[in-house]
Design brief:
By secondary structure, this protein is an alpha/beta fold. It has 18 helices and eleven strands. It has a six-stranded mixed sheet, with helices on both faces. Strands 7-6-8-5-9 form a five-stranded mixed sheet, with helices on both faces.
Length: 345
């Protein structure tokens, strides 16, 4: 009897010790964009702690910066666009473990109020006539980004090429102030810089969604980290997707108010409730069931990544040999998706 009691006491002590075990820190890297919202909300609600990890969330200026400096930054998981993401996949530095959001509707071409393009577009001109208005224009756009991908698709639809315009490689913040100040003829931007463009009086001409473009942001893990810390990657996805489902269940106004708070507290940016609602309306989040579909061997994510690979080949960022290597490389690892999500609080 004494042995039984002693054994029970030891078991209780072990359980208590495990419960008090310090959560493992997972270094996560983000931009000031919508895909960071679920991670921030999971951390606020302490769902990361419940999953056995603590998300250390850090902000960076661009996805390209994240991938170019992955060796020195040593982030464990990150959210970034597909255009810079595939470059990390080519170097085998990172792999896709999930999808953050689709930002196609938040990527847009902007012009000044005095531009003839908005009025011409309303008149529904032929592609040839519209192309004449666009040819030779100066476009402010960061190269190798989802904005650049949108620009090339738009030019394609008009039968034009990148050589038909003068492309100035310009960071989004500088593109807004430059275009508003009279520099160039148009700029290609993403949220939240699109809000700054509107506040500066610039006019949105079209979005990626208008062209039927899918531009997913990717949830990525550093390859060497994923191989040695698979449970932590799964825990990250579990709390992230728990937050996704909670966010999707919120009324639009409540979600917009929460997004406004996220932008202020985490991103250090003040946006209006109207802007927050627009960001909510122009971004798609993917719950666990949809993630499984998209990341499966025949899922749409593979086609979306193929579009990004073709984009890089077209711009000359990647050679045919490199794109061939990418197409032969397993880019997506669906095995890190959790089997199920926690219920309730």
């Amino acid at each position: 009897m004494k042995k039984t009691i002693l054994w029970a006491v030891m078991c209780l002590m072990l359980i208590a010790s495990a419960a008090q075990a310090k959560p493992v820190t997972v270094k996560s890297a983000w931009l000031t964009e919508f895909e960071a919202l679920p991670a921030w909300y999971a951390h606020v609600r302490q769902w990361d702690t419940a999953a056995g990890i603590t998300l250390d969330m850090q902000l960076y200026p661009s996805g390209k910066y994240l991938m170019d400096n992955v060796s020195s930054l040593k982030w464990d998981v990150a959210g970034l666009g597909g255009a810079p993401g595939v470059l990390g996949m080519l170097r085998k530095q990172a792999c896709v473990v999930g999808i953050g959001s689709d930002e196609a509707a938040a990527n847009a071409v902007f012009v000044r109020k005095d531009s003839p393009l908005p009025a011409a577009l309303r008149d529904n001109p032929s592609a040839r006539d519209y192309a004449r208005l666009v040819t030779g224009k100066i476009v402010l756009c960061p190269r190798g980004t989802s904005a650049h991908q949108l620009l090339l698709l738009w030019l394609d639809r008009m039968g034009l090429s990148e050589e038909s315009v003068s492309l100035l490689d310009t960071p989004p913040d500088e593109a807004v102030t430059g275009l508003a100040g009279g520099m160039g003829d148009m700029a290609v931007l993403w949220a939240p810089q699109t809000y700054a463009a509107e506040q500066a009086g610039l006019i949105p001409l079209l979005t990626g969604r208008d062209l039927g473009l899918a531009q997913p942001t990717l949830l990525m893990a550093r390859t060497d980290y994923a191989e040695k810390a698979g449970p932590q990657v799964r825990a990250f996805l579990a709390c992230y997707l728990q937050a996704v489902e909670a966010l999707q269940a919120m009324p639009r106004e409540e979600l917009a108010a929460l997004y406004q708070r996220f932008q202020k507290e985490f991103c250090g940016q003040d946006i209006s409730l109207e802007q927050a609602m627009r960001d909510v309306d122009t971004h798609t989040l993917y719950p666990l069931a949809r993630q499984r579909e998209l990341l499966s061997s025949d899922g749409e994510l593979h086609r979306w990544l193929e579009d990004v690979i073709a984009f890089h080949e077209r711009t000359g960022e990647l050679s045919r040999g490199q794109t061939g290597k990418l197409r032969d490389t397993p880019l997506v690892r669906a095995t890190f998706l959790p089997a199920d999500l926690p219920k309730g609080e």
